[in-house]
């Protein structure tokens, strides 16, 4: 009953298509946040506990700007589909944007315009119309039909505006302005409306924004108590009495739909809601034999769907609202670590920034899923959303895949890190941003804790403790079921902050685990940020340090400042970091530590430490194109000890190193290994305690092959081979999928190989992609942090033998796409993709 009613009661319509856009490097309209502020502040009222903010009377600023008017001719503006990141197409070396922010033109004012058709039936029936923006960077302000509706400054948060007072039947002119300062971030922020945008149409009596809250306070394998709060909003001018009915189904995570029949029904609750007000209904139900949510491989991420119907007094269903949730318990245990459903689960996490490589900040579900899949293959079970709220779909993926999320909101508080970052608006916005963030994300079982800040300037002062306590109390008020933490890189155990946090989150402070543990014997500790190891895929520099971790430096210390590359022996962090080996050792010496979040899972645009003149980071375990660095395998070896694998580095094609010492390292989940160089044993060795790689540091290079045979518990475990490649002769192309449609992309890898298919590990041939059929090439990349070819370029030089092309189907198309790659002097390759 209730699901069928949904279509007529509530509609959530994507309005990503058919936008017009223009970017201005200097302010085209003399508007600014200062001028708009008084009208924007009241948009936060749903997320403020104290005195509400009043919208000023009088004509709002900007109502006279041409871009907001229906008469403005935008035919010369760019046509596009959201999500959109205006900066990612380049060019690099944008004036005023340094390496930290990725050298791409993210600054300036962007205007987006759309004709929004609203049928007269919506207006006549008095429906309430909301605009939901999942993320727009930044200082978004919205006009409908020449009237300022409102806005939201923090570019990473999702927000809702009520369009109803300004809407009319027929064509409406929707205009959105975003405004980005030069120095707004420490990393590449992206620019514009980079997430999904929705038009939500509801009956005036409806479930509010993020209007359900589901918790599971008592969980066992035989039974679970599920508590529900539903908030109903009444936009009618008379008070309304409604019944709230909620049924629980098993969620089919593949389709996102309910599966089978009703599992449990909450008792019906009646609530009377005054005109213009909100009212809430609470209920509780037992679910027997619950299918619990938990991270693989030991647990399964089962999900449920709660379908809430709001019935008016005459029995009409006026709203149907769906909430996905999971049944699980969590505990932060000071000695056993993080517990899910009573079982300790070591946190094998990574930190990631929000960009998706050559797609920039423009969110794409398949691109995010590809990231999580690769991380799971590595054995990672957790993600820290450094340092800002993720796209909502990222959490849906995490729920479905069983990835635990440390959901983080801020990189700074009152004291900024850049001249125009969040500190400028912290006082006005920390409460509404934090409340809306927690309210948005609190039904996701994947979210295991709230991180309310990263490496704050205030961390060691009394102010740090007091700001944290205020943020913690806001988060607890919205969600008492999870703890709040921060990522501390310098605050010691004697700070107010360390005393206040629910989880001790330590960035790089591996040496302080013991002192935190003795000071706080009842608090869980984790490495909220670890390692920061640096490397470029496929680049090996000699000599190789004998140490298991060495600060990156000049030629002898893993760095090549001329070509802006760092050696992939995976031993070279910056001064504050450590190789993976050293972090593993520190953690294994302190068994009470719950785990770590490695900086970072994927390379990201910006922050190209140690070479600021490059474009993208060296920190990733996986490069910017999504190609695995060698480091992937040291994590896989450690995090998936039962998975038979072995991985040799470096590659074995060194015409210029014949007769020279060329160390060979192997990452493997085995305990013993023997290396063969052209069939001759270079020695069988055992991994010692607190050692995480096999190394043969005196191997002398001769062309041919390397083979490693590994052993565990006395039996052969896994092998790997590396062969010297002959001359580059052809291209090899593989796609991650055989069919695409809508926004589902194909990620296509091209390798330069010799005639036998051995990848030429140093090939840098220029590869040209072409697409025929109903689709197009979105972008290309190769993972080289020093490649300044723009991302949309059809020609991309291979880097260490590989290049990536990303292909998308035309909207609504069907048929077959052929993607071809060609390179001068090499035979080409192609793949076909089905569309639809
Ligand atoms: C940390 C910081 C991260 C990133 C990292 C690089 O201190 O939290 O955002 O800058 O250093 O190593």
Automatic annotation (TrEMBL):
Whether Transmembrane counts among this entry's keywords is no
Q: Which GO terms describe its molecular function?
A: hydrolase activity, hydrolyzing O-glycosyl compounds
BP GO annotations: carbohydrate metabolic process
**What SUPFAM superfamilies does this protein's entry cite?**
(Trans)glycosidases (SSF51445), beta-Galactosidase/glucuronidase domain (SSF49303), Galactose-binding domain-like (SSF49785)
Glycosyl hydrolases family 2 sugar binding domain spans which residues? Answer: 106-201
NCBIfam families to which the protein is assigned, alphabetical = GalB (NF041463)
The protein's name in its UniProt record: Glycoside hydrolase family 2 protein
Organism name: Clohesyomyces aquaticus
